[in-house]
Amino acid sequence: MFIKKRPGWALSHSDVTPESVYLNRRKFMAGTIAVAAGLSVPSLVSSAARPVPGEALDYVAMPGFSTDEEKTPYDDVTRYNNFYEFGTGKGDPARYADEMSVTPWSVVVEGECDKPGTYALEDLLKPHDYQERIYRLRCVEAWSMVIPWIGIPLADVLKQMQPNSRAKYVYFETLHDPEQMRGQRSMFSTIDWPYQEGLRMDEAMNELSFLAVGLYGKTMPNQNGAPIRLVLPWKYGFKSIKSIVRIRFQEERPRTTWEMLAPQEYGFYANVNPEVDHPRWSQKRERRLPSGLLSPNWIETVKFNGYGEQVAHLYKGMDLRKFY
Ligand code: MTE
């Protein structure tokens, strides 16, 4: 409905980006010492590539995975955030997230897979070309944005880790470092840190699931989840976990942060669904940002945030009132 019909993978590169840009694709720049003490794969760490904050990234545009709705301005995308590790106010992440250092960065991979280890971020990214996907983001709080993300399909990164047949779910975890994250040292915080999320394996492997390293053509601002975060456009925003440091493949369904905090309000699936209201407010409409008191910009919420064609089959036969 909102997504253009032609899938991105059906386009030739010359359709979507000038050849000079494509050939000259740059990845994160060379030159850092990676902090990584490989578990069973110690040689995974290389000396390549450190994400440079604010650096322009080269990427291939993916019209097949993009909406042509008006993009939310950069200032709103980067100043109206949820990142409780830096406070609960919408402006707190932009104010305080730069207290977190994102270089160097490594991701622990563990559980039911053939390639566990501690991966320097640049090693995870190196084999892949960046794509730009313009997705809608619908927060469970009933506001939404349209954001041009830069990143890599989640499936491509997970395949690198070679999950085995016992891997039914994948679990993600955010950095836990109260020294750098003032929200984690706040005595008012009710969250049991670190922030945790999870997906069923087939959801994770869906073509829409995306690991973003940037937005608006540049590396990710800290407040949006630098240096690497999940983007799952058919689910409420809280599933799109930021600043990921751990990925685990497992047989059992992981428990997730918001589900643990208020299970009657936030479920594991968290698919955008106007037919299932939040116990304290309606999910039938959303405020598309920017919005103000005089022009709240309410629009109708669409099931699966308009991505039903790509994901509805994942939930066939499931009662989505029960599995919210
Ligand atoms: N990830 C972590 N680690 N901590 C958070 O508080 N908030 C979630 C999600 N990811 C959150 C998080 C929520 S509620 C939303 S709506 C999105 O991030 C917001 O992403 P944005 O700030 O980039 O728009």
Secondary-structure map with pairings?
Elements: H1 13-16, H2 19-23, E1 60-61, H3 74-79, H4 92-96, E2 106-111, E3 117-120, H5 121-125, E4 131-138, E5 143-153, H6 154-160, E6 169-174, E7 196-200, H7 201-204, E8 210-215, E9 218-219, E10 229-231, E11 244-250, H8 257-261, E12 285-288, E13 298-300, H9 308-311
Parallel strand pairs: 1-4, 2-11, 5-12
Antiparallel strand pairs: 2-3, 4-5, 5-8, 6-7, 6-11, 8-9, 8-10, 12-13
The structure holds ligand MTE.
Domain Oxidoreductase molybdopterin-binding: 101-258
Binding site for Mo-molybdopterin: 81, 84-85, 139, 174, 224, 229, 240-242
Family: Belongs to the MsrP family.
Helices, by number, come to 9
SS-based class: alpha+beta
Tally of individual domains: 1
Bound heterogens, unique: ligand MTE
CATH architecture: Alpha-Beta Complex
**SSE string, helix = H, strand = E?**
HHEHHEEHEEHEEHEEEEHEEH
Low-confidence segments, given as residue ranges, are: 1-48
N/C terminus separation: 23 Å
CATH superfamily: Oxidoreductase, molybdopterin-binding domain
The CATH topology is given as Sulfite Oxidase, Chain A, domain 2
Strand content: 15-25%
Can you give the helix content as a percent range? 10-25%
Biggest sheet overview: 8 strands, mixed
How confident is the prediction overall: mean pLDDT?
A: 88
Please give the CATH class: Alpha Beta
Radius of gyration, taken over Cα atoms and rounded to an integer in Å: 19 Å
Choose one word for the global shape. Answer: globular
Number of DSSP strands?
A: 13
